[in-house]
Amino acid sequence: MKKILYTIIILILGANSGCVEEDFLKENPRDNLYADNLFGTFQGFRLATNALLDFVRDEREDKIQSAELGFVWKIGVDNGWANTELSWSRGLNQYNIELNPEMQLMNGDTFGNPGIFLLMYRAINSANMIIARAENPDVDWQATSPEMELENKQLILGHAHLIRAWAYRHLVYSFGDVPITTEEINGLNYKNDWERRPVREIQELIVSDLLLAESYLPEVSNSALELSGAIASHYLAEIYLWMDMPEQAREKASRVVNGGNFALTTQRFGVRANQPGVPFMDQFYDGNITRAEGNREALWIFPNSDVLELPGASSNSMRRSWVINYNGYAPYTPENGGRGIGRLAISAWAFSIYEPQDHRFSEFAVRKYYIGFNGDTIRTQMDNSQMNVNNARWASTRKWDWTYDDPNLWNANFAFADQVYLRVAETYLLLAEAEMKLGNNAEAAELINQIRRRSNASEISPAQVNIDFILDERSRELVTEEHRRHTMVRTGKLLERNRALNKFAANIQDFQVLLPIPQRVIDANTDRVMPQNPGY
């Protein structure tokens, strides 16, 4: 019920009006949410930007069949695979003929959920609507001074430009050349002759949006519904690395790493500080997610719990997606982490690259055993020879463990805990990559070692720093969190590492670095031929 308000606003944001009304048919509804009066005040714009954030949270919902939608960027890579293969995941897991322009993942399902391509454009058009309507001179910005009026307007624009950049980031990494739209689409300017624009143009638009968001948003935010400029700086560092601009990448990543607002979690804290555990895992526990709760590593979080008393809880699927279906031999309990169905899994290679003493590979971070129905200890598996589809004993991450206090709900499908979406640890690794590209391996090694020290891993020397080591370290630190496919595309390593490190993804063909444009999009573009990506 908490999500009804956001749903209404999202429908407004995504709707296109296609008729011209006579004056006598027009109404002036002031007691309900309509686009014209929603965008009349600062409060209305805040509701709209809050709803805009829901597009990002869609990534971790099961929009296309019982797994987080973001799986598309996390399997079919060196460290991720589909333990339970279904029609929507098999093609990407094995790079076979089921990865094609007709697949459900690209085109959407029969329940009205769009595929990833159209979902991103819904987010883009919603952001464009906010950007366009913020320029209306009649908006009441509910300010007591011209300075406050500008500040309120910039806060709204900063959020809209950041979400537009977020959506184009997913699109350009996944599909390459894509259409650009920066205007609100309505019934008067709708078109069906879209042209795919070059990757470089998309990158430049993302940079432009992120620079604006960086300058308009606060350096740091204590509100889960108010994003910070540090998020924009982080993504700028990443996109600059892809554009081979390491000096600019270093500047943006340094702004976050050295700005004093964020820090790695190096000491135990929070709700389980007095229980056995490790600092690395404390930042993932519900009750430890926000800055008010002591988490200074999180750059972007998803609020879900009633504790935060915020509208719009989201049916998060991370635990359900990444935790195996163990209920055949062990009960659903808080100790066992709640219900999982094991659609997605960490690869054997990814487990194999941890040192034994690394906290990120400890029993607190990786599910190495379950307590069965009879109280017996049942060990999980992670050897390459055991990496087979439908393996209900495969090891899994514990980053997303969560269940209700009520035993009657321990088998609930979804999790409603607060969650971290983006962490400063990743910014450290982007900065290390920039330093390496600039020939500063000593500085890169020190940044990597700061991450390794906090997890009790051995330190490395500058001579060990190269792109493959950084990719390995990203996996150790960020597995199931990062959009791994984007990282592999950006660094040009997807083909090489898939073929060497993931037996399911080893069949990848060169053209499959890009995903297919949905056939429904190509068919709908009737006034201009939209070319498909080669090979499909």
Proportion of residues in extended strands: under 5%
CATH fold name of one domain: Serine Threonine Protein Phosphatase 5, Tetratricopeptide repeat
Biggest sheet: strand arrangement: 1-3
Supply the CATH class of one domain. Mainly Alpha
> Runs with pLDDT <50, length 5+?
16-31
Q: Count of DSSP helices?
A: 19
Helices and strands, in N-to-C order? HHHEHHHHHHHHEHEHEEEEEHHHHHH
Largest sheet, in brief, is: 2 strands, antiparallel
Distance between the termini: 42 Å
What structural category do the secondary elements indicate?
mainly alpha
The averaged pLDDT comes out at 92
Q: Which percent bin holds the helix content?
A: 25-40%
How would you sum up the global shape?
globular
CATH architecture of one domain: Alpha Horseshoe
Radius of gyration: 23 Å
How many β-strand runs?
8
Family: Belongs to the SusD family.
Subcellular location: Cell outer membrane
InterPro entries: SusD-like_N, SusD_RagB_dom, TPR-like_helical_dom_sf
Keywords: Cell outer membrane, Membrane, Signal
